[in-house]
Amino acid sequence: SGPVLKRYVKFTSKNDEPIACEWEDSSSDKSIVLKGDASEFLSNTPLKHKLVMPSQTPNVRRTKRIRLKPLEYWRGERVNYMMRPSGGFVVGGIVSPEKDPCRKARKKRNHTPITRSLAVEHLNVSLADTSKPTAVWDPTLNEEVLLECVNTGSNHSCFFNDESVEIYKNLNTSVFAAGKLILKPLKEKGHQFVYTDNIAFHVICGKIIVTLHKTSYYLSTGDFFYVPEGNGYNIRNLLNEESILLFTQLKGKRPVIEHSLNESSSS
Fold first, then answer.
1. Can you give the residue ranges of the Mif2/CENP-C cupin domain (predicted)?
2. pTM over 0.85
């Protein structure tokens, strides 16, 4: 610890006007605070940080560089330099940009989700009830008939459920059927033989092993396969979670049983 020194240092601006600076000595470090009109060097921004000047303590070897607080660059702080009377530049301080009070924060836009009813309000379309049959044209009868052409995902005409598989038929006619097959974790459907039908499958999600007649395939999400008439197939789930497949069944003509014909002819 040494004596406290107070001295004044004068810098000269570009217009040869002196700028008074007070130099205070506390312990072994010095700090300088600019006084007077420092607008030329600080761009009309007041100095908010003190500069730690090189030590002037006798017989003490210290660095000659001017130390200053680390810049908060993310706030836009920068070092401001000024000209020495003898030439060259010296650190004049740190400029901290002030927030513009006139600048308003950008408001977030409220996005309203578009629902089915909201999307239809602007269209001049009359909607029918999905639970009722649809009036369509039958070219064979040459007239309009009512058919079950539309069905929602929550409604199904045929349902099968056991410990391995769940089968939903959302559309079921005399010509074709369409629906969803859910294989439970690490289960298999079991071998099934199709006679006159053709069944096409689409793997919505999951990883499965499909066996068609004598050949097995590894399929995953996005893959397709179909079972031609007169063949058997099996599906095995490889995951410890459900695998979901969509299917379309094209129904063929059912074979006529001979003994039923004989019974009808004898009667």
1. 167-249
2. no
Three-state DSSP at 74 gives helix
Per-residue pLDDT tens over the stretch 148-201: 899 888 777 778 899 999 999 999 888 999 999 999 999 999 999 999 999 999
pLDDT digits (tens, 9 = 90+) for 139-149: 989 999 999 89
Task: Provide the token pair at 76.
Answer: 């836009």
DSSP letter at 67 equals B
Q: Give me the helices (H) in the chain, please.
A: 39-42, 116-121, 258-266
Per-residue b/e over 15-36, b at no fewer than 16 CB within 10 Å? eeeebebeeebeeebbebebee
Work out the number of other CB atoms within 10 angstroms of the CB of residue 107. 6
Alpha-carbon distance of 249 to 172, in angstroms, equals 9
> What is the spatial distance between Cα 201 and Cα 233, in angstroms, rounded to a whole number?
12
Strand partners, 1: none
Q: Report the chain's mean pLDDT, rounded to a whole number.
A: 75
The residues, any chain, with a CB within 8 Å of residue 103's CB and separated by 6 or more, are none
Residues constituting the chain = 267
Judge contact between 124 and 112, C-beta under 8 A: no
Q: What angle do CA 230, 236, 241 make, to 5 degrees?
A: 145
Distance (Å, rounded) from C-alpha 226 to C-alpha 31?
85
Among the listed residues 227, 228, 221, the one whose alpha carbon sits nearest the alpha carbon of residue 242:
221
Euclidean distance between CA atoms 28 and 173, whole angstroms:
97
Tell me which amino acid residue 67 is. R
Taking Cα atoms as reference points, which of 165, 167, 166, 169 lies closest to residue 155?
169
Question: For the chain, how big is the Rg over CA atoms in Å?
Answer: 44
